[in-house]
Amino acid sequence: MTIWTNLLLALFAGVLLNLTPCVLPALPIKLRTIARVVGSGTRQRFLAAIALLAGTLSFFGALALATAMLNWTWGTLFQAFWFRAALAFLLAGLGVYSLAGRGVQPPQWVYRVQGNGYAEPYLAGFLAAVLSAPCTGPFLGGVMAFALTQAPSTIFALFMAVGVGLALPYLVLLARPRLLTRIPRGGAWLSRVQQVMGLILLAGATFFATTVLAERVGTLLWTAWLGTLAFWLIRALVVGPGFGARLVPALVLVAGVAGAVTLGFDRGAGAQRALPWQPLTERALAEARTASAPVLVEFTADWCINCKVLEQTVYADAAIAQAVDAAQMRVLRADLTRPDAALDAYLRSFGGAGLPFAVVLKPSGTVHRRLPDLFTVSTLKAAIETSGEQTRVDP
Question: How far is it, in rounded angstroms, from Cα 380 to Cα 228?
Answer without folding.
Answer: 38
